[in-house]
Amino acid sequence: MNEELDSQLSAMFDDELAPAECELLARRLSRDEQLKARWGRYAVIGAAIRSERGVRLNGALAGRVSAVILAEPVLAGAHGAHRTAVRWWQPLAGAAVAVGVALGSVLWLRAQAPFAGAPPSAQLTAAASVPAAALVPTASAGAPDSYVVPRAPAVRPMVPSTELANYVVAHSVFSSPVARRNLLSAFMASESGTAAEAPPDEPERNVR
Amino acid sequence: MSADASDLSLVRRVQRGDKGAFDALVLKYQHKLVKLVMRYVRNPAEAEDIAQEAFIKAYRALPQFRGDSAFYTWLYRIAINTAKNAVVSRDRSPIEYDLDRNNEESYDMQGRMKDSETPEGLVLTEEIRSTVNAAIDALPEDLRTAIVLRELEGLSYEEIAAAMACPVGTVRSRIFRAREAIDHRLREVFEGGLGRAEELG
Asked: Which of B23, B115, B156 sits opposite A66 (nearest CB)?
């Protein structure tokens, strides 16, 4: 018997062997009857040293258990199958979660879009094409370059209606001075803007 | 060094269908398990039957063993439950193993005399014990201390190395040499005829 192997067996019996060595020795131990008998005698020595009372060291317990186990169905793959069962759905679950998050994000973005009817990609394309069309005129080949600043989109200020202004003035007792002033300033500004843009005959109609 | 690595490597082999690896686990733990079960039943033969049942239950349940706890801890729980069930089903009252020192000897002899199925069984047990004790007495001091600290006190190699002021490798070598010396004497006993028809362990 190889002395180094027996030394490893002794260390393995005491749980003092490295796991990698244990793997190799366990394989040999399960097949080598001589090694198994030595392993059993190590257990006998330990039990004798500890003087374990009432335990019959010559009992055929191990043999009886071995005979019953021999008639039992093999556990082959039981643990492996369990591990496989745990493993196979993990990537699928990951993919399902990723798809769910992506779908949720798309739906949320669509709900947040200013024009819910139009597809987001179309809106983005349209927005991007406006300055491009303005900066690159449809000039024929050889024409001089021209740089045209695109017209800024008309900003429509919030214009309080006359009814609202009248209401605020009528109920000025209940409104705060700052709010009242802001509203009236906005109203006057809108009135002057409207007057400036109005056709020339409108002021005449107002003045009597 | 990871604790329980050797048991785990054997357990994994059993889980992959290697029944031979389970034999090694039975050989290693049968004495401890019988001793444990004897806290609940008086009769060593009955304790062996319960231990056998516990081992078979453990084998059948091994696919569910994940290694979160040590194998022996898991086996211990199975054995305790099996023993308790046996006691209930046979309507026997459990006894406490922890007897006071005055009763230890009488209990020991009473138990063995009552429970040994054959006188040969008792003789062989005594023969093994006396052989092991004689082999230990014949060991050099450093080997004897190492094996006793390991088997009797349950110290790890590192703890023994600290106690004996030597490297861990030396401890491993001393314990192995001590076991080899005792095993040599033990094999002579078995090959001499007393243990020929008996299972080791």
From this structure: B23
**Partner-chain contact B9 A38, CB within 8 Å:** no
Within 10 Å of residue B47's Cβ, how many Cβ atoms? 29
Give residues with Cβ within 8 angstroms of A58, minimum separation 6: B121, B124, B125, B128, B195, B198, B199
- Give the rounded distance of the alpha carbon of B108 from its chain centre: 17
What does the pLDDT read at residue A111? 76
Name the token pair of B182.
């005792």
Q: What residues of chain A, 28 to 87, have a C-beta less than 8 Å from chain B?
A: 29-31, 36-66, 68-70, 72, 74-80, 82
Q: CA B184, B185, B186, B190 torsion: positive or negative? A: positive
H or E stretch at A73: none
Q: What's the ipTM? A: 0.80
Q: Pick the residue with more confidence: A79 or B54?
A: B54
For residue B164, is pLDDT > 90? yes
Report CA dihedral (A114, A120, A122, A126) to the nearest 10 degrees.
50
Over residues A125-133, the mean pLDDT reads 45
What are the pLDDT digits (tens) for A20-45? 999 999 999 999 999 999 999 999 89
A1 reaches B (C-beta below 8 A): no
Could you please report the per-residue DSSP string of B103-136?
HHHHHHHHHHHHH-SSHHHHHHHHHHHHHHHHHH
Q: Which residue of A has its CA nearest to B136?
A: A49
- Counting one residue from chain A and one from chain B, the pairs whose CB atoms sit within 8 A come to 239
Fill in the DSSP letter of residue B62: G
